[in-house]
Protein backbone atom coordinates (compact mmCIF):
# COMPACT_ATOMS: atom_id res chain seq x y z
CA UNK A 1 0.00 0.00 0.00
CA UNK A 2 2.80 2.38 0.85
CA UNK A 3 4.49 1.65 -2.49
CA UNK A 4 1.29 2.62 -4.31
CA UNK A 5 1.10 5.89 -2.40
CA UNK A 6 4.72 6.62 -3.24
CA UNK A 7 3.97 6.14 -6.96
CA UNK A 8 0.99 8.51 -6.73
CA UNK A 9 3.13 11.09 -4.90
CA UNK A 10 5.84 10.92 -7.57
CA UNK A 11 3.28 11.30 -10.38
CA UNK A 12 1.60 14.25 -8.63
CA UNK A 13 4.94 15.97 -8.10
CA UNK A 14 5.91 15.42 -11.74
CA UNK A 15 2.55 16.80 -12.94
CA UNK A 16 2.93 19.85 -10.71
CA UNK A 17 6.41 20.53 -12.08
CA UNK A 18 5.15 20.23 -15.67
CA UNK A 19 2.29 22.63 -14.87
CA UNK A 20 4.68 25.30 -13.56
CA UNK A 21 7.14 25.10 -16.44
CA UNK A 22 7.11 28.40 -18.38
CA UNK A 23 5.37 28.26 -21.74
CA UNK A 24 8.30 30.08 -23.37
CA UNK A 25 10.59 27.11 -22.61
CA UNK A 26 12.77 26.45 -25.61
CA UNK A 27 12.56 29.98 -27.02
CA UNK A 28 16.02 31.61 -26.93
CA UNK A 29 16.26 34.58 -24.57
CA UNK A 30 17.37 37.01 -27.29
CA UNK A 31 14.38 36.65 -29.64
CA UNK A 32 11.97 36.34 -26.71
CA UNK A 33 13.21 39.56 -25.10
CA UNK A 34 13.11 41.37 -28.43
CA UNK A 35 9.50 40.27 -28.91
CA UNK A 36 8.59 41.48 -25.42
CA UNK A 37 10.14 44.89 -26.15
CA UNK A 38 8.27 45.22 -29.45
CA UNK A 39 4.93 44.25 -27.90
CA UNK A 40 5.52 46.62 -24.99
CA UNK A 41 6.47 49.50 -27.28
CA UNK A 42 3.46 48.95 -29.52
CA UNK A 43 1.00 48.77 -26.62
CA UNK A 44 2.56 51.69 -24.76
CA UNK A 45 2.81 53.95 -27.82
CA UNK A 46 -0.72 53.06 -28.89
CA UNK A 47 -2.30 53.76 -25.50
CA UNK A 48 -0.29 56.95 -24.95
CA UNK A 49 -1.30 58.42 -28.31
CA UNK A 50 -4.86 57.09 -28.22
CA UNK A 51 -5.60 58.86 -24.93
CA UNK A 52 -3.67 61.96 -25.97
CA UNK A 53 -5.45 62.26 -29.32
CA UNK A 54 -8.86 61.85 -27.69
CA UNK A 55 -8.02 64.60 -25.21
CA UNK A 56 -6.68 66.90 -27.94
CA UNK A 57 -9.68 66.27 -30.21
CA UNK A 58 -12.06 67.11 -27.35
CA UNK A 59 -10.24 70.35 -26.54
CA UNK A 60 -10.02 71.48 -30.17
CA UNK A 61 -13.68 70.76 -30.88
CA UNK A 62 -14.67 72.89 -27.88
CA UNK A 63 -12.00 75.56 -28.16
CA UNK A 64 -14.17 78.56 -29.04
CA UNK A 65 -17.71 77.91 -30.32
CA UNK A 66 -17.97 81.53 -31.51
CA UNK A 67 -14.88 81.26 -33.70
CA UNK A 68 -15.31 79.09 -36.79
CA UNK A 69 -11.69 79.54 -37.94
CA UNK A 70 -10.03 76.11 -37.68
CA UNK A 71 -6.62 77.79 -37.41
CA UNK A 72 -7.61 80.03 -34.49
CA UNK A 73 -5.17 79.94 -31.54
CA UNK A 74 -6.11 77.70 -28.67
CA UNK A 75 -7.65 79.38 -25.66
CA UNK A 76 -5.71 78.96 -22.39
CA UNK A 77 -8.13 76.36 -21.03
CA UNK A 78 -7.99 74.34 -24.26
CA UNK A 79 -4.21 74.58 -24.24
CA UNK A 80 -4.09 73.37 -20.65
CA UNK A 81 -6.48 70.51 -21.48
CA UNK A 82 -4.28 69.29 -24.34
CA UNK A 83 -1.08 69.62 -22.32
CA UNK A 84 -2.66 67.66 -19.47
CA UNK A 85 -3.85 64.92 -21.83
CA UNK A 86 -0.42 64.38 -23.37
CA UNK A 87 1.54 64.77 -20.13
CA UNK A 88 -0.56 62.46 -17.99
CA UNK A 89 -1.08 59.85 -20.71
CA UNK A 90 2.67 59.67 -21.25
CA UNK A 91 3.47 59.51 -17.53
CA UNK A 92 0.97 56.70 -16.94
CA UNK A 93 2.12 54.55 -19.84
CA UNK A 94 5.82 55.11 -19.21
CA UNK A 95 5.22 53.98 -15.64
CA UNK A 96 3.41 50.87 -16.90
CA UNK A 97 5.87 49.83 -19.60
CA UNK A 98 9.17 51.22 -18.25
CA UNK A 99 10.27 47.79 -16.99
CA UNK A 100 8.94 46.01 -20.08
CA UNK A 101 10.36 47.89 -23.05
CA UNK A 102 11.90 51.03 -21.56
CA UNK A 103 8.79 53.12 -22.20
CA UNK A 104 10.23 55.13 -25.10
CA UNK A 105 7.23 55.61 -27.44
CA UNK A 106 9.33 58.12 -29.41
CA UNK A 107 12.08 57.67 -32.05
CA UNK A 108 13.90 60.73 -30.69
CA UNK A 109 14.08 59.08 -27.27
CA UNK A 110 15.12 55.78 -28.83
CA UNK A 111 17.98 57.57 -30.60
CA UNK A 112 18.93 59.23 -27.31
CA UNK A 113 19.28 55.83 -25.65
CA UNK A 114 21.37 54.51 -28.53
CA UNK A 115 23.75 57.48 -28.26
CA UNK A 116 24.55 56.72 -24.60
CA UNK A 117 24.77 52.96 -25.12
CA UNK A 118 21.55 52.16 -23.27
CA UNK A 119 20.08 50.45 -26.35
CA UNK A 120 21.69 48.54 -29.18
CA UNK A 121 21.26 50.06 -32.67
CA UNK A 122 19.79 46.84 -34.07
CA UNK A 123 17.04 46.81 -31.46
CA UNK A 124 16.36 50.49 -32.14
CA UNK A 125 15.88 49.68 -35.83
CA UNK A 126 13.16 47.22 -34.80
CA UNK A 127 11.55 49.50 -32.23
CA UNK A 128 11.07 52.61 -34.40
CA UNK A 129 8.86 50.90 -37.05
CA UNK A 130 6.81 49.47 -34.18
CA UNK A 131 6.30 52.97 -32.79
CA UNK A 132 5.25 54.20 -36.25
CA UNK A 133 2.72 51.39 -36.63
CA UNK A 134 1.28 52.09 -33.17
CA UNK A 135 0.93 55.80 -33.95
CA UNK A 136 -0.94 55.08 -37.19
CA UNK A 137 -3.20 52.63 -35.37
CA UNK A 138 -3.96 55.14 -32.60
CA UNK A 139 -4.79 57.91 -35.07
CA UNK A 140 -6.97 55.54 -37.11
CA UNK A 141 -8.90 54.36 -34.06
CA UNK A 142 -9.54 57.92 -32.86
CA UNK A 143 -10.66 58.89 -36.35
CA UNK A 144 -13.06 55.95 -36.37
CA UNK A 145 -14.58 56.18 -32.88
CA UNK A 146 -14.98 59.95 -32.48
CA UNK A 147 -17.46 62.05 -34.49
CA UNK A 148 -16.18 64.56 -37.00
CA UNK A 149 -12.87 64.74 -38.85
CA UNK A 150 -9.57 64.04 -37.10
CA UNK A 151 -8.10 67.39 -36.01
CA UNK A 152 -5.09 66.40 -33.94
CA UNK A 153 -2.42 66.69 -36.63
CA UNK A 154 0.52 68.99 -36.00
CA UNK A 155 0.42 72.28 -37.88
CA UNK A 156 2.27 75.58 -37.76
CA UNK A 157 0.27 78.46 -36.34
CA UNK A 158 0.49 82.11 -35.32
CA UNK A 159 2.59 82.93 -38.39
CA UNK A 160 5.37 80.51 -37.42
CA UNK A 161 7.81 79.79 -40.24
CA UNK A 162 9.18 76.27 -40.82
CA UNK A 163 12.70 77.25 -39.75
CA UNK A 164 11.32 78.73 -36.54
CA UNK A 165 9.34 75.55 -36.03
CA UNK A 166 12.49 73.43 -36.36
CA UNK A 167 14.29 75.36 -33.63
CA UNK A 168 11.27 75.38 -31.35
CA UNK A 169 10.85 71.62 -31.72
CA UNK A 170 14.59 71.18 -31.16
CA UNK A 171 14.60 72.99 -27.82
CA UNK A 172 11.38 71.38 -26.61
CA UNK A 173 12.71 67.92 -27.44
CA UNK A 174 16.06 68.69 -25.81
CA UNK A 175 14.18 69.45 -22.60
CA UNK A 176 12.42 66.08 -22.80
CA UNK A 177 15.58 64.11 -23.57
CA UNK A 178 17.55 65.79 -20.78
CA UNK A 179 14.77 64.81 -18.41
CA UNK A 180 15.12 61.20 -19.54
CA UNK A 181 18.91 61.23 -19.31
CA UNK A 182 19.10 62.60 -15.78
CA UNK A 183 15.99 60.98 -14.28
CA UNK A 184 15.78 57.61 -16.03
CA UNK A 185 19.15 56.75 -17.58
CA UNK A 186 21.06 57.95 -14.51
CA UNK A 187 20.19 55.60 -11.66
CA UNK A 188 19.50 57.31 -8.34
CA UNK A 189 17.10 57.14 -5.43
CA UNK A 190 14.34 58.96 -7.39
CA UNK A 191 14.57 56.89 -10.58
CA UNK A 192 11.23 55.24 -9.87
CA UNK A 193 9.64 58.72 -10.12
CA UNK A 194 11.13 59.37 -13.57
CA UNK A 195 7.76 58.87 -15.36
CA UNK A 196 6.37 61.88 -13.49
CA UNK A 197 9.28 64.05 -14.61
CA UNK A 198 8.90 62.84 -18.20
CA UNK A 199 5.18 63.60 -18.16
CA UNK A 200 5.74 67.06 -16.68
CA UNK A 201 8.35 67.77 -19.35
CA UNK A 202 5.86 66.95 -22.11
CA UNK A 203 3.18 68.98 -20.31
CA UNK A 204 5.47 72.04 -20.29
CA UNK A 205 6.41 71.49 -23.93
CA UNK A 206 2.74 71.60 -24.94
CA UNK A 207 2.12 74.73 -22.90
CA UNK A 208 5.05 76.42 -24.64
CA UNK A 209 4.74 75.24 -28.23
CA UNK A 210 1.24 74.09 -29.16
CA UNK A 211 0.04 77.41 -30.59
CA UNK A 212 3.16 77.62 -32.76
CA UNK A 213 4.01 74.11 -34.00
CA UNK A 214 1.30 71.96 -32.46
CA UNK A 215 4.06 70.49 -30.26
CA UNK A 216 5.40 67.26 -31.62
CA UNK A 217 8.68 66.47 -29.77
CA UNK A 218 7.93 63.01 -31.14
CA UNK A 219 8.06 62.20 -34.87
CA UNK A 220 5.52 59.36 -34.66
CA UNK A 221 3.05 61.64 -32.86
CA UNK A 222 3.07 63.78 -36.02
CA UNK A 223 3.31 60.89 -38.45
CA UNK A 224 0.25 58.95 -37.27
CA UNK A 225 -2.39 61.66 -37.85
CA UNK A 226 -0.65 62.75 -41.07
CA UNK A 227 -1.17 59.27 -42.53
CA UNK A 228 -4.91 59.63 -41.87
CA UNK A 229 -5.56 63.25 -42.91
CA UNK A 230 -2.57 64.11 -45.12
CA UNK A 231 0.96 65.46 -44.81
CA UNK A 232 1.65 69.21 -44.70
CA UNK A 233 4.51 70.32 -46.95
CA UNK A 234 6.57 71.15 -43.85
CA UNK A 235 6.08 67.76 -42.19
CA UNK A 236 9.85 67.32 -42.22
CA UNK A 237 10.26 69.80 -39.35
CA UNK A 238 8.64 67.27 -37.01
CA UNK A 239 11.48 64.86 -37.73
CA UNK A 240 14.47 67.18 -38.05
CA UNK A 241 13.57 69.30 -35.01
CA UNK A 242 13.19 66.43 -32.50
CA UNK A 243 16.31 64.63 -33.73
CA UNK A 244 18.35 67.85 -33.48
CA UNK A 245 16.99 68.21 -29.96
CA UNK A 246 18.23 64.72 -29.16
CA UNK A 247 21.76 65.55 -30.31
CA UNK A 248 21.67 68.84 -28.39
CA UNK A 249 20.64 67.07 -25.19
CA UNK A 250 23.27 64.38 -25.77
CA UNK A 251 25.95 67.07 -26.08
CA UNK A 252 24.92 68.68 -22.79
CA UNK A 253 24.64 65.34 -20.99
CA UNK A 254 28.00 64.11 -22.31
CA UNK A 255 29.68 67.33 -21.18
CA UNK A 256 28.25 66.95 -17.68
CA UNK A 257 29.41 63.33 -17.52
CA UNK A 258 32.88 64.24 -18.80
CA UNK A 259 33.20 66.89 -16.08
CA UNK A 260 31.87 64.42 -13.45
CA UNK A 261 28.92 66.59 -12.49
CA UNK A 262 28.18 64.52 -9.39
CA UNK A 263 31.15 66.06 -7.56
CA UNK A 264 29.83 69.62 -7.96
CA UNK A 265 26.84 69.09 -5.68
CA UNK A 266 27.45 65.83 -3.79
CA UNK A 267 25.11 64.22 -1.33
CA UNK A 268 21.96 64.35 -3.44
CA UNK A 269 21.68 60.57 -3.64
CA UNK A 270 22.23 57.67 -1.28
CA UNK A 271 25.11 56.34 -3.36
CA UNK A 272 27.39 59.31 -2.73
CA UNK A 273 26.67 60.10 0.92
CA UNK A 274 30.22 59.10 1.88
CA UNK A 275 31.63 61.40 -0.76
CA UNK A 276 29.42 64.21 0.46
CA UNK A 277 30.53 63.72 4.06
CA UNK A 278 34.17 63.77 3.03
CA UNK A 279 33.55 66.89 0.96
CA UNK A 280 31.78 68.69 3.82
CA UNK A 281 34.36 67.66 6.44
CA UNK A 282 37.39 68.48 4.31
CA UNK A 283 37.77 72.07 5.68
CA UNK A 284 37.57 70.77 9.26
CA UNK A 285 40.21 68.13 8.60
CA UNK A 286 42.44 70.65 6.84
CA UNK A 287 42.18 73.06 9.78
CA UNK A 288 42.97 70.31 12.27
CA UNK A 289 45.98 69.22 10.21
CA UNK A 290 47.33 72.78 10.03
CA UNK A 291 46.99 73.21 13.82
CA UNK A 292 48.80 69.92 14.41
CA UNK A 293 51.61 70.92 12.06
CA UNK A 294 51.97 74.33 13.72
CA UNK A 295 52.14 72.71 17.17
CA UNK A 296 54.84 70.29 16.01
CA UNK A 297 56.94 73.11 14.54
CA UNK A 298 56.69 75.20 17.72
CA UNK A 299 57.79 72.21 19.81
CA UNK A 300 60.84 71.58 17.62
CA UNK A 301 61.84 75.27 17.61
CA UNK A 302 61.73 75.41 21.44
CA UNK A 303 64.21 72.51 21.81
CA UNK A 304 67.99 73.43 21.65
CA UNK A 305 68.90 70.08 20.11
CA UNK A 306 66.06 70.13 17.68
CA UNK A 307 64.46 67.28 19.58
CA UNK A 308 61.32 67.60 21.70
CA UNK A 309 62.09 69.04 25.12
CA UNK A 310 61.70 66.54 27.93
CA UNK A 311 58.66 67.30 29.97
CA UNK A 312 56.59 65.73 32.61
CA UNK A 313 55.55 62.93 30.36
CA UNK A 314 59.14 62.07 29.40
CA UNK A 315 60.24 62.00 33.06
CA UNK A 316 57.36 59.76 33.87
CA UNK A 317 58.40 57.51 31.04
CA UNK A 318 61.99 57.22 32.32
CA UNK A 319 60.79 56.68 35.87
CA UNK A 320 58.58 53.94 34.64
CA UNK A 321 61.46 52.22 32.86
CA UNK A 322 63.74 52.53 35.88
CA UNK A 323 61.07 51.13 38.11
CA UNK A 324 61.21 47.93 36.15
UniProtKB/TrEMBL annotation:
Membrane topology listed for this record? Multi-pass membrane protein
Keywords of the record: Membrane, Repeat, Transmembrane, Transmembrane helix, Transport
Transmembrane region(s): 34-54, 74-98, 124-146, 166-185, 192-213, 233-253
One function term, GO molecular function aspect: water channel activity
GO CC terms: plasma membrane
Q: Enumerate the subcellular locations listed in this protein's record, separating them with semicolons.
A: Membrane
Enumerate composition-biased segments (Polar residues). Answer: 289-302
Chemical reaction(s) catalysed: H2O(in) = H2O(out)
InterPro entries, per the entry? Aquaporin-like, Aquaporin_transptr, MIP
Q: Which portions of the sequence form the region Disordered?
A: 284-324
**Main location (coarse class):** membrane
Keyword Signal attached: no
What protein family is recorded?
A: Belongs to the MIP/aquaporin (TC 1.A.8) family.
- UniProt-listed PANTHER family: AQUAPORIN TRANSPORTER, MIP17260P
Record's protein name: Putative Aquaporin-2
Q: Which organism is it from?
A: [Torrubiella] hemipterigena
**UniProt lineage:** Eukaryota, Fungi, Dikarya, Ascomycota, Pezizomycotina
Amino acid sequence: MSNTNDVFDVEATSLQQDTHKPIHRGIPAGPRNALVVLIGEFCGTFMFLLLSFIGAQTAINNNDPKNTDPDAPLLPMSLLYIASAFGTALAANVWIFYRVSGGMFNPAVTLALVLVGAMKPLRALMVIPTQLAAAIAAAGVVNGILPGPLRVGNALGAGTQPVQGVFLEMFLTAQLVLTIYFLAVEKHRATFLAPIGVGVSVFIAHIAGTNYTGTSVNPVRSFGPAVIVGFPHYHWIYWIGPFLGTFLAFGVYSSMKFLDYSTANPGQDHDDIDRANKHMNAPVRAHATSLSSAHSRSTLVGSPSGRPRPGKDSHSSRDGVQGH
